[in-house]
User: Fold this.
Amino acid sequence: MNAATVSSVQGPAGRIALHSWGPATGTPVLMAHSIMASSMMWERQGALLAAQGMRAIAIDTRGHGQSDAGSAPYSMDDLVADTVAVMDALKIERAHYIGLSLGGMSGFGLGIAHGKRLLSMMLCDARADAPAPFAAVWDDRIATARSSGAAALAAATCERWFGREFLERHPDVAARFIETIGATSTEGFIGCAQAIQGLNYLSDVTKIAVPVTLVVGAKDVPLPDAMRDLQNRIPGARLEVIADAGHLPNIDQPDAFDAVMLRHFGLASA
Assistant:
């Protein structure tokens, strides 16, 4: 697998780290990860897009990976502004966008407010609102991070994302994600968790006017139902449900995810 080129640009809250694959002249594809992950989760897909001649650019969300945190709290619009700052710094007029979980949530805001900067969107395992029961679960996680750091959330988060059986069968994946979660800054996690609690794009997703593929792992309950609702709201959106996949289908069912991604770009038959 081709190694990424690591660089950075200045964003509203500090330095934003970028991991890129493929030719500088290729059509740009921006990639945004889940909370407590980093660009490491896009390595396989970045290399695959590069092999197709595209320019894949995975963004470390503020306070994650190698990006500066800035001061919490953040809003989801702040995370949208970070993506726009990357595009402006790299002089990218329009790009495709792939976002998963937190990256998908901010992606809805990007599509609503900056659709003219986008060629298409692939939004994965994400919702566009934060109903009270969903928002409330983040309170305990924020409290744990404040008292013990993000590393204290690592084991439970991995089990929630992948399931115990998958982690036992893939100890290398478990070890890498536990390390990545543990390296997340407390400020970055808390800020992004608070942005999730304020997520409020659902009523405006009808304004998204670029081609959209929604992707969700079949086992990522309750997101399949939430994303079916989003499919009905976003004009022309397609929904792909990946069998036997959890919250990060690009990791636990990579072949199926890659096939969906290539179909999205018209690079493979349906």
User: Anything to note?
Assistant: The chain has eleven helices and eight strands. The domain at 5-128+201-264 is CATH 3.40.50.1820 (Rossmann fold). Residues 41 and 127 are 20 Å apart (CA to CA).
